[in-house]
Every structure is written in structure tokens, then in C-alpha cells.
Design brief:
- By secondary structure, the chain is an alpha/beta fold.
- The chain has one domain: 2-enoyl-CoA Hydratase, Chain A, domain 1 (Alpha-Beta Complex).
- Helix content is about 40%, strand content about 15%.
- The chain has ten helices and ten strands.
- The strands form two sheets. A six-stranded mixed sheet has the order 1-2-3-5-7-10, with helices on both faces. Strands 4-6-8-9 form a four-stranded mixed sheet.
- About 35% of the residues are buried.
Length: about 270
């Protein structure tokens, strides 16, 4: 049986590809386990500086596999132990870029929203889907989405579960950039390669933690925390390298980052 997730590491950029094209990359327990294991490995691998995630074939991820949904409607649950948070990508101390190449809905949209940056192919369809399936906004999407697009837009997308195209998603701020379908992956990888070469992994990890944690801090707490981080980081080799490479007009040589990411698991 083919791997449900493909991995390819090139020059600091790890490309992860959902690989269930025969099921349009629908979410399954096997795909969940493989994807989160790959993210956990990426967090601990100093050679990985940026992660790009996309889908094989014509879809990104249209949500839970309909076979799993049908079983759930019958009151059945697939055998599965305690699970990592569906928003696990937010905990990885490296940039995660979603290259949304096709249909993106439900848990697929949660994965895209959990990424730090979203690129999409022109004409791609996105939807929260939950209200039209008799479900609530799952896995803290009701918390993440308003912070990406604002409360009013989030309410629209969640309550109506209407389908939007990538172009509207870009106008709403849900998607950072839109590309022609045959240019999407190349553009995402080029953007990731620029980060991998020119940006300090330690700085990117700190910034990602700041942005996520500052949602819960006051402005003054954020300011004071940033001051503390600056005093810690100005004595590092990355700071010296950042200054020296700029003055010498050369490509920087930053150190990689390795971290253990092991959040509590839950049983549903």
C-alpha cells in the first residue's frame, strides 16, 4: 500500500504531501498519525528549517473520509488511541506553509488554518463545512478563524459553511497569496527556500511562539516579553551572524533548531 504521506527534504525545506489521491486526500487515522509524526520529527531535526504541506492530485484535504463519517453516523468509532491536537502544526517551532492545491474543508481547513502561512491555487474551494453536517466548529477553529479574518467574517464562514473560492479567501485574509494552479507549489517552495536560507531558525521559532502566545497577553505583557527575548538573543551566534552577513553582503549561515514537541494527547 502506498504511503499516505510523502516526505521530501531539500536544502532545509521539508515538503509533506498528503498522499491519498484515490480518496481526494480525505483525512483518516493513518494520515493523521503520519502527518503529525512527520511534524514532530521536523521539530526535532535541525536540518529542517521550513515545512510546506500540500496534497497529491487535485485536492488538499476535503475533510474526514466519508467512510469514517458514515461509520460515525452509525455510532461506530475507528480504533484509535489518544490523539494529538488537530492544531499540532501551531506547536512546531518552525514555519509551516500550507500550499492549498485543491478542495479544503472541515479538518482539512483546520490543518490549513493551523499553518502559519497559506498559499492557494486560483479557483480552489474552501469551506468550514461543520454547520451543514450537524457539527460545531471543531478543534478550536472558532478561536483560530476570528484571529485570522475577524469575528464577523469568521461567523459568516462558520454559520453558513458556504463554499468560497481562493480569490475570495485572499480578499478576506484567510489566504496570503493566490497563484495559478501550475505555479502554486513552485511558489510555496521558493518562498520557503528564502526563509530557510536567509532567516534565523531561532528567530523564526521565537517569533512564531510570540505571535501565538501574544493572543493571550496584553500589549504591555507582549512588549516586556519581547524586551526579555531581545536581551537573550543579542548574545547568540545567530545575532552576530545576522549582523556580520548583512555588513559583508553575503548569505548568512545560521544554526538549525531542534525541539521536542510532545503536547498532551486526548481520547477523542
Amino acid at each position: 500500500m502506498a504511503d499516505v504521506l510523502l516526505r521530501n527534504l531539500d536544502s532545509g525545506v521539508l515538503l509533506l504531501t498528503f498522499n491519498r489521491p484515490e480518496r481526494n486526500n480525505a483525512w483518516s487515522p493513518d494520515l493523521e498519525e503520519a502527518y503529525f509524526a512527520a511534524l514532530r520529527d521536523a521539530a526535532g531535526d535541525p536540518d529542517v528549517r521550513v515545512v510546506v504541506v500540500t496534497g497529491a492530485g487535485r485536492s488538499f484535504c476535503p475533510g474526514i473520509d466519508t467512510e469514517v463519517l458514515a461509520a460515525a453516523a452509525r455510532g461506530e468509532r475507528p480504533p484509535q488511541g489518544p490523539r494529538l491536537p488537530m492544531t499540532f502544526a501551531r506547536l512546531v517551532p518552525k514555519p509551516v506553509i500550507a500550499a492549498v492545491n485543491g478542495a479544503c474543508a472541515g479538518i482539512g481547513l483546520i490543518q490549513a488554518c493551523s499553518a502559519d502561512i497559506r498559499f492557494a491555487a486560483r479557483g480552489v474551494k474552501l469551506t468550514t463545512a461543520f454547520a451543514r453536517r450537524g457539527l460545531p466548529a471543531e478543534n478550536s477553529l472558532s478561536w483560530i478563524l476570528p484571529r485570522l479574518v475577524g469575528t464577523g467574517v469568521a461567523m459568516d464562514l462558520l454559520l453558513s459553511s458556504r463554499v468560497i473560492l481562493a480569490e475570495e479567501a485572499h480578499e478576506l485574509g484567510l489566504v496570503n497569496r493566490v497563484f495559478e494552479p501550475d505555479e502554486l507549489l513552485e511558489a510555496a517552495l521558493a518562498y520557503a527556500a528564502d526563509l530557510a536560507v536567509n532567516c534565523s531558525p531561532a528567530s523564526m521559532a521565537a517569533i512564531k511562539r510570540q505571535v501565538n502566545a501574544d493572543w493571550e497577553r496584553s500589549s504591555e505583557e507582549s512588549r516586556l516579553h519581547a524586551i526579555s527575548l531581545v536581551s537573550e538573543m543579542v548574545v547568540t551566534t545567530d545575532f552576530a551572524e545576522g549582523i556580520n552577513s548583512y555588513r559583508e553582503k553575503r548569505t548568512p549561515c545560521f544554526e538549525g533548531v531542534s525541539a521536542v514537541v510532545d503536547p498532551p494527547r486526548h481520547g477523542v
